[in-house]
Each structure stands twice: as structure tokens, then as C-alpha cells.
Design brief:
It is built from 10 helices and 38 strands. By secondary structure, it is α+β, with helices and mostly antiparallel strands. α6 packs antiparallel against α8.
Length: 656
């Protein structure tokens, strides 16, 4: 029931409590560039309030709910003026509660929270997909970074300005030499064929009257870099591309600067950048700004590349950032002269190195989780088996390299790769490292901590910390299985851990974003992929792992994760948006059990007994396990052929 607000005189007579806190829009702390036109708003009642009895929301665009008699403080739908592309408003809330004696307490107004929409329609874009001209694409893992640049002039600094950007690959934006925003690994990891996130940045303070330069650095990322246990590459495409649009607003006048063939392209100091392999940089390739401008006059121009505008979306999850920095707990030298840096904790991310060698000298950084007998970093346990060539191992990757130019203040920070590590072996650096020379950067989705645990038993407290850190190391963009060897979003892992994760952190948006990928990767017959994001069954690069899709436990993630999120948040929308995918998966399980019999069961009894329609013992299931020969540990049948199709399988031991 909604009524008009009490007048000011009445409100002043009420006891005033503290204000509501933890304002959210669509579960986000920073709803910048979202693409939902009816965002749901949430808040936490003031401290000490047991039960809210009413609320009132006001917004800068004139929306005013008046006093609403309701205990609801979670996911209240926006019902103000219609929202469209670029719409922005600030909202605040106050609440009322009734004490045991019947007296009413009104809260103070909360701090305002801004909500801003991004570009909702393909027609909002004037920018085009552009990229470097690569007549010959270098081999995976050895592809350089490119800079795409545009210089423009404005008569006066605008009243407000936004940059909208995304990429096929990983991009960083720089405006007049300053990095735009603090997000990392943008546009993030998604099933790029169906979903591509756009980041929205407020660039008002970075613009100036006169000449301005926007510059983007572009590398392979998840789009075409090597990926996962098998190190397959080009999963979504063979060429990187950038889509960006700057909008400068002053009064009713809007100036738009979009990516097109007038942008200039040049190689950067990044010799190669790969999420699995590492990043190589040669700072000698950097030239002075004046020389760069001179060279740009005759530099190559960008080429327009194909790219969809229909798959573009705003954020559902918090951004990925450097959320913590660690200093070394020890630095030692090995007999070979390598300096081994111990950060005391296994993390996901990279290191920032501020002490480099002399001009022309190369320093190599080898990342790992363990030390060998000589006290140096070992990667032996991180090298995956090469299933295509039994008996061989693939490279562990996780190696960065930097060649110094000798310029003062040179700092190496490989923001176009990631690693899982506690130790770093620094090789080729003669000078002794001091703790302040090297910093470990923990890179993860910027999740809000919620629950804590502590007890009188130090062993349980230590176990809790191990669990918490294990999750933090696997919470970059998507829930991964490990931060080094695979970095893959195995569905079975998250369906098991999400209840614990939801207790420790607000993983709602993080999980909703990932569930979008799970739904996008679902096959027509209802099969859920074991890894999401995944290019899907029609992409040949993913064929090797396709035969494992549709496994019990792993496929169940599409049911269990939405349910656990609903229990944690009370958001029925999560169930609604996944309902069809949940039903299709369960239909696949049911029909497979009804229509397929294990070969051993059929041999023992040609006529099935009634209860067998409920037994699902065909297909690939991880409970069987696999040995090095590719044969099941529980049966003598060979491993299924490598294929992306789904005929009924008969491997594994039948259920009784």
C-alpha cells in the first residue's frame, strides 16, 4: 500500500535513526553502464532495525515513491520516468520501523547512489569495429600488442564526457597519457559469440580544451589467446578488434568520436601477451611523445573488422581490479644467481617490478607455487599432459620477460596476462631486490566480503583461511578451477562451492554473469558444457573436450547454482532467467535415462526392468576417471572419440 509522505512537521517529531546503507542496483555497487531499463533497488535497513515497516525512495529525475507501507528492502523495481540510453539518476532512501512499544522511528536519508545506463541499441553506436591489419597472424602465444590512436580537438572542456569501449581481446584505454579507469582485463571473459560486455567510463576530468589523444592497447586475451588445459587458441576468432565511442556533452550539444578507419595503428612495446603463456615487453620500443606524433603522421591506419552490436551488454558483475597488494616476506638467491621472491600466500595476478636491469638487459620472471630442492621455482606440477601426443607435456607458461630501455622510473607491470603463484624467480637481474622493488598484485572480481568465521581452534581458523584464499584465487571474471594450469570455468566446481562462496562474499552478480555463459553454451538437446565460457560444440578448437559435456554433477550446475543464489538472496529473477535452461537439462537427463541402457546391462538382460528408466549410466561421467592411457579406471572400454556431437555413450560401470 502506498500513501503520501508525512509532512515535514510530523517527520520532525519522529525519533530519527541512522540511515540505510549498502545501496545496490541489480546487486551492483557500481551500476555504471547497465543495460536494464527497470533496475531493481536494494538497501540494508539502518543498524539496529529488526523489522522495517515502510520506506520512501526519491530520485534526482523526479521519481518519488512517497511513503510505502512495506517491509521490502530487497529488489524494489524502479518505477520512475522511462529510462533509455545514457539515462542517469541518483536515488536515496529512508525507512521507518515500529518499536515494541508501538512508537515509530524514521531513519535519516541514505547517501545518494548514482545509476547510469549505457548504450542500449545498435543505432546508438557510430563507432565501428577496427583492428590492426595482420596479413599473417603470428603463432598463438607470440602475438604482439597493438596501439590504436585518435587525436581530436575540442574548443572547451565538456560539461560531461563518457567513453564506451569493448574488444575482441583485452584492451586498455589511455586519454592524454592517463589510464582510463582502474578495471583490469577488460572487457572480461564471456561466451563472446553471444555476449560481449561494454565498459562505460566517466572521462570528464581527463579531457582538456584543445588537442586530446585517445589511445587503446589491444592484445589477444580470452578471445584468441591460448586457453585452458589443452592450450587451444583462436577459440572465438583469429583477429583482435576494438570498438570504442567517446561522447562529449555540453548543454544540448553532443560530440561523438568513434572508432573508424581514421584511427592510427602501431606496434607497442608488448612483444607478446598471452593469458596462459605470459607477457614479453621491450621498453626500447617506446619512443618520445614528439617522435611518436611525428611517426603517426605516416603510420598505418586501422582496418574495419566485422563485429556484432547485437551481443553488446552492460555489466552484471562487479569489475575486475587489483584488490590487494602484497609485499615479499622473503627474497633469496639460488646458486645460479636467480632471486626467488616469496610473497607468503598463493594468489592470482601478476607482479609489479620497479627495479629493472641496465639498458638492453632482459629480466625474466618465472611464476610458481612451489620450490625445488635447489630453492628455485618449479613448474613441473603445472605442466598439463598433451593428450594429442601421449607421453608429452605442454608448457606451464607463466613466464614474463622485460627488456629495459634505461629510462628513469621505468616500471614493468604485465596487465595483459595473469598467473597463479606464491613465488617468483627473477632471472637476469644483477642488482639485489629490496622488498619495495617488487609487489604482488592480487587480481580478482571486486567482490564484497559478507560472512566471516572464527573459533577457538586455530586449525579450523587456518582451514577457513585456506578456503577463503582458494576462492579468491579463482574468482577472476568467472569461477575457475585453478589460477594457473587451466583457469577454466568448470561447472561442477562452482555448483559445489557456491553455497560457501555466497556466505563469504556477495557473488550474486558474479554468478549471474557466468550463468549467462552457461545458458549460451547449452546445446540444443539440453546438454550443459563442462566448461563455461566455451565457444560451443560448433567450434573445432573446442572439439577435444566436447565429449565430456553433459556429465552428472557438472551439468547440474544450471540447476544448483540458481537455486543456491535464490536461497542466499531471495531473488526469484535468478530462477526465472535460468528456468528454461534448467528444464532443458533435466529433460535431457530424463530422456537419456529412459532411452539408453549401458551395454553391460543390455547384455545381461535384453528386457529392461521397470526401474531402469530412472538409471542414467550412459555417456561420459567423471566418476569413472581416466588413466594416462585414456582408458576408464572402472572399465576396459577405450576413451570416446574426439567429437562435438552427442551420440549415446556406453563407457563406464553400470549402476545396479
Amino acid at each position: 500500500m502506498t500513501s503520501t509522505s508525512p509532512d515535514a512537521a510530523v517527520e520532525e517529531t519522529l525519533m530519527v535513526a541512522s540511515a540505510p546503507t549498502r545501496l545496490r542496483a541489480e546487486h551492483l555497487r557500481e551500476p555504471m553502464g547497465i543495460t536494464t531499463t527497470r533496475p531493481r533497488l536494494s538497501w540494508s535497513p539502518p543498524a539496529g532495525v529488526i523489522a522495517q515497516s515502510a520506506y520512501r525512495i526519491t530520485a534526482s529525475n523526479g521519481w518519488d515513491t512517497g511513503r510505502v507501507e512495506s517491509p521490502q528492502h530487497n529488489l524494489v523495481p524502479y518505477s520512475g520516468p522511462a529510462l533509455g540510453s545514457r539515462s542517469r539518476f541518483e536515488w536515496r532512501v529512508r525507512t521507518w520501523s515500529t518499536d515494541a512499544d508501538g512508537s515509530e522511528t524514521a531513519s535519516a536519508w541514505s547517501e545518494p547512489m548514482p545509476v547510469e545506463l549505457g548504450l542500449l541499441h545498435a543505432s546508438d553506436w557510430t563507432g565501428q569495429w577496427i583492428g590492426p591489419d595482420e596479413p599473417r597472424v603470428p603463432a598463438p602465444g607470440g602475438r604482439p600488442g597493438y596501439a590504436l590512436k585518435k587525436t581530436f580537438t575540442v574548443g572547451a572542456a565538456p560539461e560531461s564526457a563518457r567513453a564506451y569501449a569493448t574488444a575482441h581481446g583485452i584492451y586498455e584505454l589511455f586519454l592524454n597519457g592517463e589510464r582510463v579507469g582502474d578495471q583490469q582485463l577488460t572487457p572480461g571473459s564471456t561466451s563472446y559469440n553471444t555476449t560481449l560486455q561494454v565498459q562505460t567510463y566517466d572521462i570528464t576530468a581527463l579531457l582538456r580544451a584543445g588537442t586530446n589523444t585517445i589511445r587503446a592497447v589491444l592484445t589477444d586475451g580470452w578471445y584468441r589467446g591460448t586457453f585452458g588445459y589443452t592450450r587451444d587458441a583462436d577459440m572465438y576468432g583469429t583477429h583482435t578488434a576494438l570498438l570504442a565511442q567517446l561522447e562529449l556533452q555540453s548543454g544540448d550539444s553532443r560530440t561523438v568520436i568513434g572508432t573508424d578507419e581514421s584511427w592510427l595503428v602501431a606496434r607497442t612495446e608488448i612483444l607478446s601477451a598471452d593469458l596462459m603463456g605470459g607477457q614479453r615487453v621491450d621498453f626500447r620500443l617506446l619512443i618520445s611523445e614528439a617522435a611518436r606524433e611525428s611517426k603517426a603522421l605516416t603510420g598505418s591506419t586501422a582496418v574495419v573488422r566485422p563485429g556484432s552490436y547485437q551481443t553488446l551488454t552492460g555489466p552484471l558483475a562487479p569489475p575486475t581490479r587489483i584488490v590487494e597488494e602484497l609485499t615479499p616476506v622473503g627474497v633469496s638467491r639460488t646458486a645460479k644467481g636467480h632471486q626467488v621472491v616469496d610473497f607468503g600466500q598463493n594468489i592470482h595476478g601478476w607482479v609489479r617490478l620497479s627495479r629493472l636491469g641496465a639498458a638492453g638487459e632482459t629480466v625474466t620472471l618465472v611464476y610458481g607455487e612451489a620450490l625445488d630442492a635447489a630453492g628455485d621455482v618449479t613448474q613441473d606440477h603445472l605442466r598439463p599432459h598433451d593428450f594429442r601426443h601421449p607421453g608429452r607435456f605442454l608448457s606451464a607458461g607463466q613466464v614474463d620477460e622485460v627488456t629495459a630501455s634505461g629510462a628513469a622510473g621505468e616500471v614493468f607491470e604485465p596487465r595483459h596476462t595473469t598467473h597463479g603463484f606464491q613465488y617468483v624467480s627473477v632471472r637476469g637481474l644483477t642488482a639485489d631486490l629490496a622488498p619495495e622493488d617488487i609487489t604482488a598484485c592480487l587480481v580478482q572480481t571486486d567482490l564484497e566480503p559478507l560472512g566471516t568465521f572464527m573459533c577457538s581452534d586455530k586449525r579450523l581458523n587456518k582451514l577457513h583461511e585456506i578456503v577463503r584464499w582458494s576462492f579468491r584465487d579463482n574468482a577472476c571474471e568467472v569461477p575457475t578451477d585453478c589460477p594457473q594450469r587451466e583457469k577454466a570455468g568448470w561447472t561442477g566446481d562452482w555448483q559445489l562451492f557456491v553455497p560457501t562462496a555466497a556466505y563469504l562474499y556477495d557473488v550474486t552478480g558474479f554468478s549471474r554473469k557466468w550463468l549467462n555463459d552457461v545458458r549460451a553454451d547449452q546445446w540444443e538437446n539440453g546438454v550443459i558444457a563442462n566448461i563455461s565460457p566455451s565457444p560451443g560444440p560448433d567450434t573445432t578448437a573446442a572439439d577435444f573436450m566436447a565429449f565430456v559435456n553433459g556429465s552428472a554433477g557438472w551439468g547440474d550446475a544450471i540447476v544448483m547454482v540458481p537455486w543456491e543464489l535464490y536461497l542466499a538472496t531471495g531473488d526469484p529473477g535468478i530462477l526465472a532467467e535460468n528456468w528454461d535452461a534448467m528444464r532443458r537439462w533435466l529433460d535431457f537427463v530424463r530422456t537419456t535415462a529412459e532411452s539408453s541402457r549401458h551395454q553391460d546391462r543390455a547384455a545381461a538382460n535384453p528386457t529392461p526392468v521397470p526401474h531402469e528408466e530412472y538409471l542414467w549410466d550412459t555417456g561420459f561421467h567423471w566418476a569413472n576417471g581416466w588413466n594416462r592411457t585414456g582408458r576408464s579406471r572402472t572399465c576396459s572400454a577405450p576413451a570416446p572419440p574426439i567429437t562435438a556431437s552427442w551420440p549415446p555413450r556406453t563407457t563406464g560401470t553400470p549402476l545396479p
